[in-house]
Amino acid sequence: MEKLFKKSIALVLASIMALSMAACGDKAETKPAVSQKEETVGTAETNEGEATAEATVEEKDYSEHYTYSYASTQITESTDYNSPDDAMTQYWEQKYNFDWDIISISSDKWDQTVNTWAYAEDLPDVTIFDYKHPQMMDWVDQGLVFKFPKGWQERWPNVAKVQEYGGLQLAFEELTGDTYFLARTSYATNLPCTPGINPTNMMVYIRKDWAEAVGIEIKDYYTIDEVMEYARRVKEQDPGKVGKDLIPMGLSSSNCYSVFVSSCSTYTSNNYYLYRDGDDFKWGLADPETLEGLKIWRQAFDEGLLNKEFYSYSGSEDVEDFYVRGVSGLMWYQGGARYQQDVANRMRDNLGLEYDDVVKQIFITANDGTYHSAPRGNFWGVIMFNPDIPIEKWERYMDMLDESCSQEGQVLIRMGFEGTDWEMKDGEMVSLLEEGKDARSKYPSIYPVYHQLCMLSDDFVLINPNYPKKYRDLTIKMYKLKEELGKDGGCPPIDYDIYLYSSDATAALSFEYEKEFANIVVNNGDVETEWKNWLDSWAYLMDPVLKELKDNID
Amino acid sequence: MAKNTTGVKKPTFKKTMKEVARFKGVYLIMLPAIIWYILFSYVPMAGLSLAFKSYKAKLGIWGSPFTGFSHFEKLFQDPRFIDSVIRTLKINGGRLILTFPCAIILALLLNELRVGRLKKVLQVTFTFPHFLSWVIIASIITNVLSFDGIVNSAIDLLGGEYVNFIGNAKLFVPLVYITEVWKGAGWSSIIYMAAIAGIDQEQFEAADIDGASRWDKVWRITLPSILPTIIIMFILAAGNVMTKGFDQIFNMNNAAVQKVSQTLDMYIYNVTFNAKKTDFGYSTAISMFRSVVNLIFLIAANTITKKLGGNGLMGGND
């Protein structure tokens, strides 16, 4: 009987092991074959010849209804993206015979959510990914993302054109020989800078009325020391009579990092921090200019110019101190015309203040007058498809993207319907919407789905008559000024050899610069010593990367 | 083969099955827990093989190529990993010494209360925080202890200087312990209260006749009687020393206390989700290391307990 008991135990253990093996086994072995009706492309085993032939078929049969699962951040939970009352979504859904299954991704879990889906081979039909090159290369190597059929550019020329502007997709195709994603392009023809130069659209907003009251000259840009002086005088004189709640510089850790460190040093972005220096490669965070910015940050903290607990700001609390509570003298915020309009509306609603009277949008330079902005790709987020998406379903989505990238598609998404939301007058588009409103506020489904389909709003907003001309003109002027003041290396173009370099060494790098520098600022140690210690602590990971770059990039 | 020196016959399989059939209702209640453990604790163990592999999604865990000990080599070269291990041992070792006894003390104090209603009210009050998530507790802590929170407002009213509670690296670990006790002591004390309730009341009556004070009764009757429970809870806590408190530290963490809050679990989270590329093999290697250390602590605590004359987790002295 004892033997029988032991055998039973052995049987149970064997069953557990079998269950374990089933759970961890080769998915390719256990997965049912893809339906024969739904021909798929995109995996590493795709028959490219067939896929190309499929892609060149000109017929457009939209009789079969599709539901596209679409995952992105910034989804408005309260919006019905299939609403029958929303004329914008109805236009697209009826024309291309589909509906949306919208999946919201939390911004702070963007990477990990998409990673989990990709490695579990469970990507939605369409997923927006905050591009990280080593990660994308791994997915491509493992066949976890859709591989575009050759020649797609001819069939969807508007999308292809937008990708030319975006740059990233072409550089990636040059590297790998294929297309695996589409970059959501920021600017096409309207960017006022030289192509390739793409300074950040982030700006600093200061209280113009306070600056005037404390004797600070109103200008379009200030050096970092001048901004510090503004903050000091605001703190001393409290021109807004705010009292003990006054925060001269309302900045979170990441925004402090941008204002103090990135204004002084070029290669300090979390996405772009390595650069060529002759035959060598360097890490921007180890530059003396970075230390200079860090010291100024500490100075601002020590002098009480920042919120005493700036590191505990979460979400948009720091900017709300400016435009909701009215207790802050400065904020770091998007600079485009739509955002200026947005801030104007919020200040009117919350504080009863007229934006044009009390706010000045500026940018900050280093103390030598150079404007610094790390190289940026002309895109934000890339569109990836499930590797097993049926080809017809993917093609129809591409049809929709192509229309959205056309001139007419952009006008429709940004301006709404002709005759209802805008009209032509003397050869120019004139908005018929209520002042301060745009198509996005009339048709909630626009944001963020149609708004960010493949072409982002940054380009059109510069010519969008829904927004006041003075704001659009200011944005253009600021871009030009940034390029001019950054022409001596402060605002360089992206170097795709560096940006698209991937190895085990680069993949191991995981920085949160703003948090780590905030830690140096709030702790009492000597800034320079702490900064050097911090650099030393990363040397074992960074040194091999710099050596690899030198060995492998011409 | 070891001789049976106790004189008690080992139960046969047939007898065991008879017992199971007799108490089938009780065993049925256990069944969900057993299934849960099989599915979520034993089945995933097979995934630990990833620690020696480079994970390829399409090949699955079994099909992914072996890389030997490369993940472990990389791991032990990383000074951040070493730092995080030391920090975890310090913080969670401190928990064992400082927060573990709090539940016992609370149970003893509650047991000494003579007013039944007050005892119940206090028990509910102390147990309630257990049901709050760390997200909520961290938010409460921030609101209470921030610059414009209740505590600093009170200090200000009394003419004192503002105290930086949530951004002070020196106060972070004490705050971790205090919040841990606030959240968990009431709940943990339930086990000790149950153990106290099971003590033979005649012992207390005999002690009363002998003129023992309340302190004598606590020290000489209550504590020794619940010692086996304390030992088991301690051994289990020791086996959790590398994993305890991720939720708490993740939510209470901020840039100012970054250096003192990077425990091993935070390190795993960062290398898994904040790296430029997710490396499941590497993350699994760290998790495996963590589990092995936990196991060592568990066995060590169990062995020491037995050596000191206790029963250990499985009961009986060797």
Quick structural gist:
The complex is a heterodimer of chains A (554) and B (318). Chain A is an alpha/beta fold and 554 residues long.
Any overview of this molecule?
The complex is a heterodimer of chains A (554) and B (318). Chain A is an alpha/beta fold and 554 residues long. Chain A has helices at residues 2-24, 27-30, 48-55, 87-96, 110-119, 133-142, 152-155, 157-166, 168-176, 208-213, 224-237, 253-261, 288-302, 317-323, 337-351, 355-358, 391-405, 407-415, 439-442, 458-461, 469-485, 496-499, 504-507, 513-522, 527-552, and strands at residues 66-72, 98-104, 126-129, 182-185, 202-207, 221-223, 274-277, 280-283, 330-334, 359-365, 379-385, 422-425, 428-431. Among the domains of chain A are: 52-191 and 380-415, D-Maltodextrin-Binding Protein, domain 2 (3-Layer(aba) Sandwich); 202-375 and 474-494 and 512-522, Periplasmic binding protein-like II (D-Maltodextrin-Binding Protein, domain 2). In chain A, strand 1 (66-72), helix 4 and strand 2 form a beta-alpha-beta unit. Mean pLDDT of chain A is 90; it is low at 16-57. Chain B has one domain (68-307): MetI-like (MetI-like fold, Orthogonal Bundle). Chain B has helices spanning 13-22, 24-42, 60-63, 70-77, 79-112, 116-127, 134-145, 150-157, 169-197, 201-209, 214-238, 246-252, 258-261, 264-274, 280-307. Chain B starts with 12 loop residues before the first helix and ends in an 11-residue tail after the last helix. The interface between A and B is large, with 55 and 52 residues.
Question: Which descriptors would you attach to this protein?
Answer:
A: D-Maltodextrin-Binding Protein, domain 2; D-Maltodextrin-Binding Protein, domain 2; five-stranded mixed sheet; globular; B: 318 residues; mainly alpha; MetI-like fold
